[in-house]
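Thread: "does anyone have the structure for this chain?"

Original post by V.I.:
We have the sequence but no experimental structure in hand. Need at least a predicted one for the grant figures.
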Amino acid sequence: MSKSKKQMAFFERYLSVWVALCIAGGVLIGHLAGDKMSFLSDLEIYNVNIPIAILIWLMIYPMMLQIDFSSIKGIGKAPKGLILTLVINWLIKPFTMAFFAWIFFDKLYSAYIDPDLAGEYIAGAILLGVAPCTAMVFVWSYLTDGDPNYTLVQVSVNDLIILVAFVPLVGLLLGITDVVIPYETLVSSVLIFVVIPLVAGVITNKYLVHKKGEEWFKNEFLPKFKPVSIMALLLTLILLFAFQGPNILNNPLIILLIAIPLIIQTYFIFFIAWFGGRKLKLSHAVCAPAAMIGASNFFELAVAVAIALFGLESPAALVTVVGVLVEVPVMLSLVALANKWRY
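Reply from O.Q.:
Generated one for you, tokens below.
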């Protein structure tokens, strides 16, 4: 029985194109504006840049609207799939990302990257590695015929774990790389960019579903927020690359150098999760999204924390933004692979 080919929405399908255009536009704006950009970079409260914070909140809040913690009662339906996801995301992925980042930025790239800055590039990669995907994974699950309810369970549980595990893991791994980390800034970032939008999203979800019904909420309300989230992401990228413009123009190969370890890590984690799921005899509908969650990242959170900890013009922030650039084409290739290996 043939199935009609599933496709991503227009903006999501060409997200890498929009990101590339934003990079070019941001670098051009930064070059033309020069020192005038300092006006925006100085708008801070407790080391958090206000314009960027507003845009990132607009990115994250629509994603949190999709989370329904009542779905967690379905954990018992297929516990092995959830266990696989949690082991990959929290016991393997952060450490392999730190390892690949150390190998490339500290060793292989020593001739191209100032050793004093290598630690910040590693830190940006670590922030990506410790933030498992929470939003785009619904798209990857849909494209691979994943079980949507079980995907929701996996994402919901990961969101809960982020609340307690993100700060200690980031602190541990950044400590290993000898990066000085202000814990109060890290904790406040998680509070601002995870806890508050998560609570707001859950309250909004419960209220509107109770008031208008679940069908209206999913088919009418949620689609209206997609453009808000994407536009906030694109505006954030323009601002970030406007601040990063001089760094990129002075070292135009840096984007490629950053992308290589991120791409290797993505494929590496996918293969571990995929073949681990096959070994556990998971169904394709559970194994595919489990592998996608591990491979992709909650880059919005990583971007926000990198900016809060290291600043708008930091190498760490640049790494997290390059993560956005490479994620969509790489993940689409993994979607094609999962569909080719369907069992």
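V.I.: this helps a lot. The chain has 14 helices and two strands.
O.Q.: and The chain has one domain: 10-340.
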